[in-house]
Design brief:
By secondary structure, the protein is mainly beta. It has one domain: TolB, C-terminal domain (Neuraminidase), CATH 2.120.10. Helix content is 13%, strand content 39%. It has two helices and 27 strands. It has a five-stranded mixed sheet with strand order 3-26-25-24-23, with no helix packed on it. It has a five-stranded mixed sheet with strand order 9-10-11-12-16, with no helix packed on it. The longest helix has 25 residues. The chain starts with a helix and ends with a helix. 38% of the residues are buried.
Amino acid sequence: MSRLRFLAVLVCAAVSLSATPLFVSGDLLWAAQDGRIYDISKTRTSPLNFATGHAPIANVGGTVLGQMAFSLDAKTAYVTVFGSNKVVTLTDSGQVSNHVTGIANPTGIIRTSTGKMLVASYTDGKIYDITSGSPVVYATGLVNPRNMVETAAGIYVADQGNSTVKLLIQGNMASVTPLAYGIDAVSIASFNNRLYVTSNSLTSVYDVTAGGNMTAKTPVAKNKYFTSLAVANGHLYAGTNSSTAAASGIWEIPKSGNSYTTANAETYNMAISGDSLLSVVPDAVIVTPPASVPEPGTVIAGFSLLTFGLMLRRRCQALAS
């Protein structure tokens, strides 16, 4: 029996060593609208041409128009599946499972610094707290919320249907004064203490840090149907929503002269439609375990040994005198 157990341990160890994890810290992850998720390595030295063949690392099995969040150990991704009214988990080993169902057309998802998992419902204009594993209404009063980002000031949500960017509060947000308005914000990102959003209809990326009416503001990037944003390895990236290879890709922004060509792309020829899911695999958060507490038996044994030692010492001193 002991030999069999030893062999089983060896087999398990071999399997774990041979398995290649899906998630590599610092890599970009991009999703096609049909649910296929692709990895874009941070170690690439030239633009990645999808036309040469680039296989997805996973398929979450439905329309994806939202975001991705990660567990603290960066081994599980949470993905909103718009067309299936659910949030799924994608593990580092490639397993896809339902996590939460019953959210109407979920889009944005974020794990907050306090440990909450919040999800936006595009259809009913609400933000749900799914930390417990079941959806609980966290905020109402939005129109068509899309993606979210957390900054030192709080969590900002891009409300595409209301053409605003608002600071998220718990409760009814209908009367919350927007930070920025006049822009059909889709994706939102915080980079170098600045707040950026994409506007698909205006084919641009805007800096909305100063807030106000964005209709007359000059974009920091333009001339592409930008819908996605991500910050990775000290850079801000934007991706497009396009079904044509000529207009599709991911670029670092801004580019001088707003020249977004295949020569300066991170990826191009992505002849499959994407949307707002462009994410980065985070570093794992190492949780320090609590200091070990001695078992009661250990404490009793130690006390007994100490007592015996003291008695022996006294006896020896008595004999010496």
